[in-house]
């Protein structure tokens, strides 16, 4: 049985193009040799490591040549405040524009609470409201509760490797079934110049069940490269690139190229 995803693309129950992880192996091997050579010569390995990691992330995003491409623009505004020590309230809006649709195709509105439960470990609970307009009218809406754990993994060079696992439940206005999915992510954050930081990330979407709007299995993968620049004490800006690959069945796979812009303010 075929189902349609949120943007109208089909994918199979099992997915395809699974050879991407093999491309990661030689990059990791070369990175380890670069780290060893740097230790022997006394040179700093951070830049070489970050370049190799970026190449590895790019490799996982391109398992084969996509037959369709789409250019997107994402505009994000985020406000957060510390309610008490170790507890943060976060409000966010995200507006997404697509060249394929020629208009705003999705708006998201998030409220979330994050608690630090141990050194380097956080728990987050939140609710995301998703609105999908088409031709000036609302096509469908979605309530999306989330539960998330974030954790530090290791210090690599002058950067930090971290992970995150997010669970989501999807309640859409155009379907009576509830979609469940998990979104693991791995990030590497590296200071590059003064207070400017570069963040490299890989995230995959795994649907845990099949409904009228999603199929069980590996739906998509995302890779990010984002620079964060402090503007004032309480305001920072982000600019970056996202590569998103959607696995489809009879329809061509789709690769989306996103320009990411964001403003973050803290109170």
Q: What does this molecule look like?
A:
The protein has 267 residues and is mainly beta. The protein has a single domain (63-266), classed as Porin (Beta Barrel), CATH 2.40.160.40. 13% of the residues lie in helices and 60% in strands. The protein has helices at residues 24-41, 46-61, and strands at residues 68-84, 87-98, 103-118, 121-134, 137-156, 159-172, 178-193, 196-207, 217-230, 235-246, 254-266. An 11-stranded mixed barrel has the order 1-2-3-4-5-6-7-8-9-10-11. Strand 3 (103-118) and strand 4 form a beta hairpin. The longest helix is centred in the N-terminal third of the chain and has 18 residues, at 24-41. It is globular and about 45 Å long. The model is unreliable at 1-46 (pLDDT under 50).
Low-confidence stretches: 1-46
Classification by helices and strands: mainly beta
User: C-alpha Rg, in Å?
Assistant: 19 Å
Assign the CATH class: Mainly Beta
N-to-C SSE series? HHEEEEEEEEEEE
Domains (count): 1
Please state roughly what percent of the residues sit in beta strands, choosing from under 5%, 5-15%, 15-25%, 25-35%, 35-45% or over 45%.
over 45%
What is the helical fraction, as a range of percent? Answer: 10-25%
Morphology = globular
**CATH fold-type name:** Porin
Strand order of the largest sheet: 1-2-3-4-5-6-7-8-9-10-11
Number of helices in the DSSP assignment: 2
Write the CATH architecture name: Beta Barrel
Largest sheet: 11 strands, mixed, barrel
Mean pLDDT across residues: 83
Task: Report how far apart the termini are.
Answer: 49 Å
- The CATH superfamily title: monomeric porin ompg
Instruction: Report the count of strand segments.
Output: 11
Protein name: DUF2490 domain-containing protein
InterPro entries: DUF2490 (IPR019619)
Pfam families: DUF2490
